[in-house]
Structure formats: structure tokens, C-alpha cells
Amino acid sequence: MEHITATKVKAILSQKGFSPLKQLGQNFLVDENITTAIVKAAGAQEQNVIEVGPGLGALTGKLSEAAKKLVAVEIDRGLFGYLKEALANERHVALINQDILKTDIEDLYKTQFDGTDVLLIANLPYYITSAVIMHFLLADIPLKRMVVMVQKEVAERLCAQPGTAAYGGLSAMVQYFGRPETVMKVAPGCFYPRPDVESAVVRLEIEKTAGEESRRFIAFVKACFAMKRKTLVNNLIKAGYDKTAVLTALGQANIDEMARAESLSSETLQILSARLADKRQSMGSTVSETHDCE
Ligand code: SAM
Considering only CA atoms, which residue is closest to atom 21 of ligand 1? Predict the structure, then answer.
């Protein structure tokens, strides 16, 4: 596949009669230095790779040169059709025309890969960034690393330390799985059309696998961060945890009764989650399991 440039992206869009769809987060990478750097930062050489949203193939082309096997999932039927033709000769590349959030990742992994580790590498559509990240982290597959382009503010949240303005539920949930780090910042001029925001590439080495325990922790974090203005104790009581058990767990961990979840590290929240594992009396009325803690 030919390498993508701004001129080429514009030419393909006009030849095919495509207009970039804002609602699908279609800001295409047009700087080859960035796609090369992402592939390098991800260590994609000879690896199994899943890409979300291949678009016009800026990253896909580079990934297909490096990867052992590449599976790319694109929701847009027009872009999918274009890429299918462009990559017709690449037998180690599979393209799937589907919404990634409706894709059963475990099933996709089983049907496409050989049981060895896989990487998620993507320039993510910004309207579903954190949902996609959590969708992969909670899938029971041997995910070794993710390297994703996200909005700069989301990168800051992913990597934030407790007690800072950027720290929240998303930080605590993602930091359960490993230590996210920003590997590069990317200016709006590297995309067509230019997004209104700056971007950053975040790398996460995955140290914990998904399973019952991680799902329990994620539900616990959602409860802890459900209402920003409330204390941790109040949020947990609202979610149905026994008040005495919560106060005891906080005391044992030397945490002030007035503390808010925003001041606690992912590790501390894990300790509390384990101590309170069987102390939820009823489902609280306001904590939805799908609350995304953004
Ligand atoms: N990878 C390309 C690049 O870097 O130039 C395109 C990235 S663009 C930011 C995001 C891509 O994700 C678009 O191609 C868009 O159509 C696709 N997309 C948006 N929502 C999606 C979804 N729910 N499932 C799969 N792909 C999606």
C-alpha cells in the first residue's frame, strides 16, 4: 500500500466522493513521521496487531509492513470498501466492517489469532476513546500492550497522579492494568481535517489480565467516583456498601473519612475494593454499571 500524504488523502476523498464524518471522529493522519513513530513505539514488528478505525490506511499501511498478522475494524462502510481493495494483496491483513464497541473482542481474537500475544494500536476516534480502551482492557485476551492516539486531555487523564485536576475514575481504572505513559504529542496539522484539539500517543504495557477481579474493581471505581462532590464514604454508601464496613476499611488503610476518591491512587482503591468485596448489601439506586467515569 502506498504511503499516505495530505495530498493523497484529499485526492482519495474527492475521487471516492467521501467527506470526513465528524460524528465518526474522522481526522486522518497525514504525516508519515507520526505513523512511523507509532509503529516503532508500539514494537509492532512481527506481532499480532488489532487496529481500531483504519480509515484510509495511514497507520494500517505501516502496520501491515511490520505485523505478523493485522486485524483492522472499521465502522464506515465506504472507507472499509476502499481499504479492502487497497490491501487486497496483503494476506496477513483482515479487515472487518463493524462497530468496535459492538464487537466481541474475545471472539474476534479466537477467530483471527493463534493464541499468542496481541497489541492494540490505533488512532482512536475521539468520541469513544475511553469506551474503546476499557472494552479492550476488560476483554479476556492476551493483550500485551496498547498504543493509542487520543486527545491530549484524555492522555493527561490516563497518566494523571491522584490529587491532580486531571485524575479521575478513568485514571484509576486504566492504572489498575499498568502504567500509562505519553510517548509523543501530536499537533493538529498532522491530520486532515485538522482537529480542534491537540493529540497525544499513550502507551500502556498491560500487567494484569482481565477477569472477575478486574471487573469487580472497575465496578468499585465507578461507585467511588459516581458523584464528584461527594466523599468516598457517601458514594460507597449510595452504591449499597455497608457504612460500618466502609469506615472500618478506611480506618485500616489510614484514609480520612472525608477523603474523596480523587485523592486515592489506583493501588489504594484496589486495597479498599478487596476489603469491601463482600460488603455490598444492595445495588445502590444511582450507580449505573455503565457509568463511564469520564
Ligand atoms: N487510522 C486512520 C488514521 O490514522 O488516519 C483513521 C483514524 S480516525 C481518527 C478514526 C477512525 O475510526 C475513522 O476511520 C472512523 O471511521 C473509525 N471509527 C469511528 N467509530 C468507530 C467504531 N465505533 N468502530 C470502528 N471504527 C470506528
Answer: 75
For 127, the 3-state DSSP assignment is helix
pTM: 0.94
pLDDT tens digit string along 196-249?
999 999 999 999 989 999 999 999 999 999 998 899 999 999 999 999 999 999
Collect all residues with Cβ–Cβ distance below 8 Å to 9 and sequence separation of at least 6.
28, 30, 56, 58, 192
- Return the SS3 of 207: coil
Counting ligand 1 atoms within 8 A of each CB, the residue from 19, 74, 128 with the most, and so the one to mutate, is 74
Residues of the chain with pLDDT under 50: 284-294
- As for ligand 1, residues whose beta carbon falls within 6 Å of it are 24-29, 52-56, 58-59, 73-76, 79, 99-101, 123, 125, 128
3-state secondary structure of 120: strand
What lies within 8 Å, CB to CB, of 58 at 6+ separation is 4, 9, 28, 29, 30, 32, 35, 123
Distance from residue 130's CA to the centre of ligand 1 (Å)? 14
For residue 168, give the C-alpha cell.
479521575
Please report where in the chains the cell 448489601 appears, as a residue. Answer: 281
In CATH, what is the architecture of 212-275?
A: Orthogonal Bundle (1.10)
How many whole angstroms from 45 Cα to the centroid of ligand 1?
22
Is the CATH number 3.40.50.150 carried by domain 6-205? yes
